[in-house]
Amino acid sequence: MHNPDDLRDKTILLGVTGGIAAYKAVEVVSGLRKRGAEVIVLMTQAATELVAPLTFQTIADNPVYTDMFAEPKRWNVEHIALAERADLFAVVPATANIIAKAACGIADDYLSTTWLAFSGPRVVAPAMNAEMWSNPVTQRNVRELARLGCEIVEPDEGRLASGAVGRGRLPEPAIITEEISSVLHADSSLCGHTVLVTAGPTREYFDPVRYLSNPSSGKMGYALARAVRERGAEVHLVSGPTHLIPPRGVNLHSITSAEEMLDRCAQLWPRVDALLMSAAVSDYRPARRSEQKLKKDAGDPGELVPTPDILSNLQSNGGGRFVLGFAAETDEDSALQQAKDKMLRKGMDMIVLNRVGECRGFGVDYNEVVLIDEEREESLPAMHKLPLARSIVDRVVQVISD
Predict the structure, then answer these.
(1) Which of 8, 91, 181, 358 has the fewest Cβ atoms nearer than 10 Å?
(2) Could you tell me if 35 and 6 are in contact, meaning their C-beta atoms sit under 8 angstroms apart?
């Protein structure tokens, strides 16, 4: 986490659009102000139907901009002046509509026009109905914004305004505030390093339609890749199947099976000096894969054989890299010892104990872990996976720098 006054002397444009989560933007403004930032709020007309501009004006202690053709509050071309003055532009919440406009360069109101005139770092926090978020058009637009350099704070999963449960909730305001701070304080502590990160599940197919796998979403690995990239490293992310948007500036290598993950990591291994292995690799695969769908009445689909041990194979081709691994355990009584044994057995420098259970581990947005190395154990409290990843990378930087 950054210092409480780390945004002093920073000016942040905060765009608020017409999503039901607009009320949470008030807390984002408050959090930024507490860190010393000057915040200037721009609202769409739809947003003003949900939260009164006076609320933001009071919290931000600045005029709120809504109308392109209102009499200027200062005598200049206001949207251009604001764009030139600000250090960062964030949109909280970002509806599917504003995301589409931004991706296509449409500028038809105050917010979108100022966005197009702005040339600095940007943070976008989408929030919408789950079906709207997963719509291929929205996903295409989000990927385009990421390609153009926007930091995307992906929505959380949970109960939505409609009463349905799915992905589309705006993350907690503190997470968004921390993300804004991180973008403005990117450092170069890993500059010159090349880091390999593995993420997501692997799939081991019995036949063209059935496979062995696990519930890993890849969120932890993608967060680690983002946290390492923020520190200035060159990052290669070898990922199993996920629905996540790769972090900006990261080299993505998509794979499916454990064998494919090993092959890709082995190709990259001579170029890297650190490995963060968060992928949930399937331990077994079918001994034989059928080219046709196996019928249910065919009986036993065949024996299982172990998948390759990726880390052992890599280290047999030359060690000397910093290695961080993960241990997903379910037995509360023996989890710590099992993680320590795995770290020593596999020659890791550090391991993250991930106690899998209700609201912890696979597929969730928050987690609590224990960081373990030869000298100490450090329990980290439950937190969103992005700040958790940054805390883990803080420790990695300490070890690499010693």
Answers:
(1) 358
(2) yes
Distance of CA 105 to the CA centre of its chain: 25
**Which of the 8 DSSP states describes residue 293?**
P
Residues 173 and 252 sit within 8 Å (Cβ to Cβ): no
* Domain boundary assignment for the chain: 11-184, 194-401
**Active-site hit among 214, 251, 313, 354:** 214
Please write the tens of the pLDDT for every residue from 231-284: 889 999 999 999 888 888 899 999 999 999 999 999 999 999 999 999 999 999
Residue range 370-382, pLDDT digits in tens: 999 988 899 998 8
Mean pLDDT of the chain: 89
**How many Cα atoms are found within 13 Å in the side-chain-facing hemisphere of 391?**
20
Q: Which residue, chain included where needed, has tokens 């036993």? A: 300
Amino acid at 376: R
Pick the range with the lowest mean pLDDT from 23-32, 117-126, 183-192, 250-259: 183-192
Q: Average pLDDT, stretch 160-174?
A: 86
Question: Is the preceding omega at residue 387 within 30 degrees of 0, hence cis?
Answer: no
- Give me the CATH code for the 194-401 domain, please: 3.40.50.10300
Q: Which of 83, 151, 146, 137 is nearest to 112 (CA)?
A: 83
In the structure encoding, which two tokens stand for residue 315, read together?
């280290």
Q: Which CATH class is domain 11-184?
A: alpha beta
Segment (H or E) for 238? strand 234-239
214 in catalytic set: yes
Residue 119 identity:
S
Let me know if 353 is exposed, middle or buried by CB neighbors in 10 A (0-12, 13-18, 19+): buried
Cα 39 to Cα 34, 148, 181, 317, 320, distances in angstroms: 11, 24, 13, 52, 47
- At 280-307, the pLDDT tens digits run 999 999 998 888 888 877 667 778 999 9
CATH topology agreement for domains 11-184 and 194-401 = yes
Q: How many CB atoms lie within 10 A of CB 108?
A: 9
